Amino acid sequence: MVAFGGKCRGKEVDTIEYFMANSNQWYPMELRLKKKNCYFSHVQLDDKRVLVIGGHDGKKYLKTVYEINFDKDEIVDYEDLHKERQFQVN
């Protein structure tokens, strides 16, 4: 299980953490999101890769799209969306 981005104490964050079931603990990764981001959408491509789409960095809406590759510990840029967008579930 992986948690990335979001808000902490009212501020957007760029951190990525993973959960290890055998130790029942969360661990931070050195890899970070491209920028602080909340209210984004994501798509799991497979068990090692996730797309991060749009969001909000605390100042503006984003139109960025990028892949987090957990196996290679890298971020891969995709072409930006045509319009900025944020996603929110109520």
How would you sum up this structure, described in words?
With 90 residues, this protein is mainly β. It has one domain (2-77). Helix content is 0%, strand content 46%. It has strands spanning 2-4, 7-8, 11-12, 16-20, 25-28, 41-44, 49-56, 61-69, 74-77. Strands 6-7-8-9 form a 4-stranded antiparallel β-sheet, with no helix packed on it. It has a 3-stranded antiparallel β-sheet with strand order 1-4-5, with no helix packed on it. Strands 2-3 form a two-stranded antiparallel sheet. A hairpin with a 4-residue loop joins β6 and β7. It starts with a strand and ends in a 13-residue tail after the last strand. The model has no long low-confidence stretch (mean pLDDT 93).
What gyration radius follows from the Cα positions, in whole Å?
Answer: 13 Å
Tell me the strand order in the biggest sheet. 6-7-8-9
Question: What profile does the largest beta sheet have?
Answer: 4 strands, antiparallel
State the separation between the terminal residues, measured CA to CA: 23 Å
Q: What series of H and E elements makes up the topology?
A: EEEEEEEEE
Number of continuous helical runs: 0
Beta-strand residue fraction: over 45%
**Whole-number average pLDDT?**
93
Helix content class: under 10%
Give the domain tally: 1
The computed structural class is: mainly beta
Sequence stretches where pLDDT stays below 50 over 5 or more residues:
none
Shape: globular
The tally of strands reads: 9
